[in-house]
Amino acid sequence: MKQALPLATWEQTRLLSDPRRLRLLRLLMARPATLSQLARMVGQSPAWVQHHLRRLERAGLVQAEGSAGRGRPRTYRATAGAFVLQRLVLPESTRPTAVFAGSHDLALERLANRLAPHLDLVLYPVGSLDGLVNLRQGLCHLSGAHLLDEDGSYNLPTVRRLFPGGGVRVVTLARRVQGLMFASGNPHGIRGLDDLTRPDLRFVNRNRGSGTRVWLDARLRERGIAPAAVRGYAREVATHTAAARAVAAGEADVALGLEAAARAAGLDFLPLFTERFDLIFPEEATRPLLPLLEALPAAEFRRLAGDLPGYDLAPAGTVVA
Question: Which of 67, 239, 275, 296 is least enclosed by beta carbons within 10 angstroms?
Fold first, then answer.
């Protein structure tokens, strides 16, 4: 059975930036080949092919089998059935840098700006599930999630499934109100989730894996509503702000998102649920993240983000697990 391997060094990544070497590797991932066979496939001389194969071999991407001689040419094969490129590139700076990958949050955006003299917090909104996967793969330093489990709890069941060996901490950032966002005055008379099936309403959805999308999909299943019955279900945006802006610009009639995002865009809002938004990070990252963790329970954070509608910052900094 073939296996996929990560590109583990910068040298491997650099070698494959050359399209000629990349093609040789892709051919060898498909099937083993001799030097002369590869030369015919790429239309180059055997000497040219051998030069590039030696570099791929030294990098651990290609291996040779057999020994030349007695009419039996050496066969080359890739060391994996596929290669995955996953590298975290950080700035060269005197200040520590932390990459956040997870669910979009407005209070965290404000806090990141305030922390700049002590910690460069770089935000990468990919959704709750993808953020936790990135954390597990070492592609970020902390994540943020608001995943509602079937048992009614937030985040912990998913964190335990993804990190069965533990080694991570879960700290609450805030409790937040989510609901339906629509134009001021509610010209379409929207009253609840069941209205999303109306043919006259255009919906804009959140990206797959986001906590908002996970919540919506669960509610649609409870109601027996197929995604295809929601006009605009397939249109996705990555943040609450982008969803609110789409409605404000008249590109959609309704979206599901944070009350704070709706109010900032001048929209009306119908609250549907209150959720807990947690930060998740490895225990060994606690010390580098101290400027962030110490800021959460401080009064300054409440002054900084306390005016966000639908936010409850009272539990900020509480260790959940």
Answer: 67
